[in-house]
């Protein structure tokens, strides 16, 4: 480990925390439906959309109606993308003449981008046309991100409102988030990336001659526009197979830092929105403190392991950090930091190959996803996932003090706790269930590149990534088969919407309740004790659930490595 590496981590942390309030102010204005500086230009677009679609943005929806509209919209956009991917060979903007995807492959990709997972079993530059990338995938990068923020807004309204059935209007939330948050930032972001050297063109490729004199055809396309929203919306799907390790997606150390910051930007802002909406910004800062505590702990372990390197290579006289699968221009610190950031958020973009990390260095990104990616998390999804754990924590606190628990003035009763547990239980059900099936069936065992605990970790990582809607991979798993396309597709869909629906049910239940002023018997939810309880509940639930699987995978892999055995 180096001073420069720690300075990068501390700089990133400081900027991230500093972004919380300004980003939160912007998001809060959209949450309330107030006018923003972009209304002068985009206001007519918003009103035109409502008129064309016959929508009254002021019409409140109960949680069931909100959920039904959301789910129907997801199914419609999924089928739209599926058709584009299946028939891309018949559609325009296909300069390389690429064939359409297989039925199972197209369905997996459509589900992947609909659920904000962006799991990619294919190489983007050799499998998808420009039209598929732009219309089929990038549109989902906006819509799936907007969906996550909309669900978080609805849950926040549940905490903030009193004695009402309405939790907002899904169509109004989606429209305003897309027009006034995602679109303006991404336009500026894309221009910055273009100026930094990221391509934005409809050209198919460019021919180059390497230093060895070999001719090489390098794929091009509308990369910058997809790169901007994939990071800001915590989508993660790369235009190129190498993702953000590719110089056309991530040209420099500065763009690397900006990309990491953009992954966290909206997530940290949402914590401030929550505090502001419930009338106490300290509530939001307490949530952010718990998130950043888990983030720094994970970053420290990953950087420590990657900087320590492989002891087997050390015995051969090859001392130094583990640089296998990493870009030399980023090094161990920036690669470790990026890995933790992208798995704390449900992003999945990578600037290094996680399959090449040390056993414990790769375990932390895996564990981040198994916690539900609630450490900042995906845009919107991180907050509503974290609040499920907060309800569980306040329930435990209520048991300890012997009274009905309250959180931000709302009584937390059995209905809310049951829905919270239902949402949290989705993770172990799909992660461990899917891993178990793939570890015993021939079709599943045909996927891992490596044997032993490392091969098991490749399978475990895939189902953790799919269920948590992350999308990153250990890269050693051959997943483009009907078995994995089908099973991982189910994991992605269940992991997304079987958590969203309980969150909306909680929003509806809380919105109908009165607000009770804090009393001397109320458990404080803004101090260090609350932060510690939140961190403890998240780690205990994750640790007790996934420790046996981790022991069979990365922990066994680490113990074998220090004894000189590699897989």
Give the N-to-C terminal Cα separation.
25 Å
Biggest beta sheet summary: 2 strands, antiparallel
Global outline: globular
Low-confidence stretches: none
Q: How do the strands of the widest beta sheet line up side by side?
A: 1-2
Average of per-residue pLDDT values: 92
Number of separate strands: 4
Helix fraction bin: 55-70%
Listing every helix as H and every strand as E from the N terminus to the C terminus, the arrangement reads: HHHHHHHEEHHHHHHHEEHHHHH
Structural class: mainly alpha
Rg, nearest Å: 23 Å
Total helical segments: 19
Strand content: under 5%
Q: Short description, anyone?
A:
The protein is mostly helical.
Ordered list of secondary-structure elements with their pairings:
Elements (H helix, E strand, L loop, with lengths): L2 H30 L6 H15 L9 H24 L16 H12 L9 H4 L2 H31 L9 H27 L8 E5 L5 E5 L3 H10 L20 H25 L3 H28 L2 H5 L15 H14 L14 H12 L10 H21 L4 E2 L2 E2 L2 H27 L1 H4 L6 H16 L14 H30 L16 H35 L5
Antiparallel strand pairs: 1-2, 3-4
What can you see in these coordinates?
Helix 1 (3-32) packs antiparallel against helix 7, helix 3 (63-86) runs antiparallel to helix 18 and helix 10 (281-308) runs parallel beside helix 19. The chain is mainly α. Helix content is 65%, strand content 2%. The model has no long low-confidence stretch (mean pLDDT 92). The chain is built from 19 helices and four strands. It has a two-stranded antiparallel ribbon. It has a two-stranded antiparallel ribbon with strand order 3-4.
Keywords:
567 residues; mainly alpha
